[in-house]
Amino acid sequence: MMIIKNAKLFLDEPGIFEQLDIRLEGEKIAEIGANITGGVDEEIIDAAGCFVTPGLIEAHSHIGMYEEGIQWEGDDICENEPVTPEMRSIDALFPGDVAFAEALTGGVTTMCTGFGSGGVVAGTAVIVENNGSLIVDDMVLVSDAGMKCAFGENPRDFGRRGKQPNTRASVAFMLRECLQDAVDYKAEKEEALKKGDHFKIDLGMEAMVRVIDGEIPIKAHCHRSDDICTAIRICKEFGVRATLDHCTDGHLIAEHIAKSGYPAIVGPTFGSKSKYELRNKSFDTAAVLVNAGVKVAVTTDHNVTPQESLNWLAAMYMRNGLSEADALRCITCNPADILGIAGRKGRLLAGLDGDVVIWDKHPLDLQAKPKRVYVRGKEMYRA
Q: Is the residue at 358 inside a domain?
């Protein structure tokens, strides 16, 4: 049991810091209020002058899948076939990636990580806690959190190897075909079971049925405006949930994205415009989308930019028009909402997991550092 006293706590509603105390009891936040008094066995932390946020949440990462400091040996993000929905990131994740420990130095306590964008349909992503375990299963919050699909330049690279897809139209066709195959597979399975016939299970189609049934969203890698529109068009055709990951041209078609109802996971915005479809990359994107009514999370796309830099990116978006409250929401409660884990993570609320970061300065100050980081009430980092 522990009470953090005298700090300024970020509350997403009304979106301000308030000087309050917070009590952690076991794995949960037990109480938030003024002048909380502790019992004899409770640890009291005087955090006067400090700021407290929920643990930061990364909505789109490759941590543990594309490991730090090595090359092909730690690269598990892409298969050599364009459509592999049967692949599961949980089976490729390496908890010993040093990036997990480094992420704690930036207050990042939860990540959605998974396959890259080399294929049209790559497999399912996984949401993990940054809890220091070397057992993958003990890190997992959601084992199949979304089906990674990609549009644009990356999947078209198969064309240079003499394979489909070679064009954007081919990318769209292959995703449509995969979704339609899942619709047909489901109907055939239901009919076979109704008749009592043997039915051969296809693991890829089983995963895609979860997509068409709305259990898991498509995580749509899309940078350019036409690719964003194609992702929306196909997902609407099949009535499936989706997130628009990267959404680089989002500020150019913000109203269209808002009308779709799909959230955007924006970034990585820091760094060079390394390919043509990034030519409109801008730190303006998040503010324009938020102002249009889109729910936005910010991504490092680790290891494109380091996982621990998540708060720095939010600060850069704030510099370009995003409000302080929305910048913080983009790395806390918004990704929790988008990932479907808001019942446990992303806010300082009694009953949620005790994922708490004590910062020495305002977390959007580029000089700010976490003094202590807790995951489910357990101290995982101390400066």
A: no
Q: Total structural domains in the chain? A: 1
Tokens (6 digits) for 82 = 């364009």
Task: Establish if 4 belongs to a structural domain.
Answer: no
CA distance 230 to 161: 24
What confidence tens digit (pLDDT) does each residue in 300-357 have? 999 999 999 999 999 999 999 999 999 999 999 999 999 999 999 999 999 999 999 9
- The whole domain housing 83 covers 55-344
Amino acid at site 150: A
Residue carrying structure tokens 């409000």: 323
**Range list of H helices, 239-378:** 254-260, 285-292, 310-319, 324-329, 333-339
pTM value surpassing 0.70: yes
What's the DSSP call for residue 317? H
What is 142-198 written as a DSSP string? EEEEEEEEE-SHHHHGGGGGT-S--SHHHHHHHHHHHHHHHHHHHHHHHHHHHHT--
Please report whether residue 174 resides in a domain.
yes
Mean pLDDT within 72-78 = 90
Q: What is the pLDDT of residue 69?
A: 84
Cα gap 237→98, rounded to integer Å: 41
Q: What is the DSSP code (8-state) at residue 38? A: P
Contact between 241 and 216 under an 8 Å Cβ cutoff? The reply is: yes
Q: Residues 6 or more apart from 201 whose CB is under 8 A from it?
A: none
Residues 6+ apart with CB under 8 A from 129: 109, 110, 139, 140, 141, 375, 376
Residues 188, 209, 182, CA angle at the centre, nearest 5°? 55
| Spatial contact of 61 and 92, defined as CB atoms under 8 Å apart | no
Distance CA 3, CA 18 (A): 16
Kindly report the CATH number assigned to the domain that includes residue 253. Answer: 3.20.20.140
End-to-end CA distance of the chain: 21
Give the span between the Cα atoms of 290 and 281, in whole angstroms: 16
Q: For residue 129, is it within any domain?
A: yes
Which pLDDT tens digit goes with each residue over 19-49?
999 999 999 999 999 999 877 788 999 999 9
Give the residues across from 232 on adjacent strands.
none
Helix axes 285-292, 310-319, angle to 10 degrees: 70
Alpha-carbon separation of residue 212 from 46, 55, 155, 242 (angstroms): 50, 32, 22, 11
